[in-house]
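Reading a protein record of the kind used here takes only a little practice. Think of the row as the fold of the chain written in a discrete alphabet. With that in mind, consider the following protein and its fold in token form:
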Amino acid sequence: MNPSRILLAAFLVSSIAASAQQTSAGPAGDSWSTAERGGRIEAMHNGALVFGWQTTPLAQPKGGPKFAASAFLHPLRTPSGFEWTQIQPADHLHHLGLWWPWKYVEVDGVKSLTWEIQEGHGAHVARGVKQLPSEPGTLAWEFSNATETRTAGANPKTVILETARVTLGTSGTDAQVIDVALRQKPAGAPVTISAYRYSGFAWRGPASWNKDNSLMTTSEGLGREVANGKPARWVVVSGPTQSGSASVLLMSAAVVIAGTPERLRVWDAKNHDGTPFVNFNPVMEKPLPLDDAHPAVSNRKYRVIAADRIIDATAAEAEWHTWIEKAREAGTKP
């Protein structure tokens, strides 16, 4: 390991140790706790693991060291214990639960691939963790991350600095709620986020769901066969679990923050048997500079609700409006 990696590992260990603590929140009988185990921050609700954030590179990734990723959310589980994320599936070893790398970034005229980390050109990596004060019934963190570019024989170069504020809570007794607020800025030279058909905030769903047993619907009323490339404020996927049914609702605030909705990259029935893959992409149509004048890439916010029940289109639309209106009433964007 090179010296910079040793220093980074030491920093992560100290940051994680400082943030790992027991936390109680919510009404009587409703308890939360957090801990650092095996290179990730874990959150338990009433003693059950429901949340994980990968703070250090995977120790033994499938495919070897080139897939040693960090900075992703997994496992994520509903209150009943249904695991609705999946990492390193055989068809895409670089897919990582709930994660948000850019496909390509351009700095000083050089375009670097930072999505497929196995190519060795770049990566989105975790740098530090701070647990934040939170409202009763929730946990909150500030994750410091970076986008690196890599050249053979040289140390990784940080080109983007990121602050990710993540809040975890529940809705009633049968739903998990995760809010993700991402702020990014260039670490030095100006950065352009290159246009591509997939890039940005993404979810790889459970291996047990496919085209035959799951249903996808978007805010525009489109299913998995026609939703790819289309704009959407939200997308919901529902399918079976061992104890019944579950839904995962992913919502984007781009239409409020940036004035235009993001476009979706999703798989139809012909792609990997329709296994859920959902990507909110602000650069599908054109590249964008990474600066405050372009909040579509520099200031992104999402809410994900994973429930042990079916969330239909009417309920999904209501959830999106509730999220947006509560933020407006508070005098802030989501």
Remarks:
- Residues 1-20, 24-28 have pLDDT under 50 and may be disordered.
- The helical segments are 3-19, 254-257, 295-298, 313-329.
- The domain at 3-23+32-329 is CATH 2.70.98 (Beta-galactosidase; Chain A, domain 5).
- The chain has four helices and 22 strands.
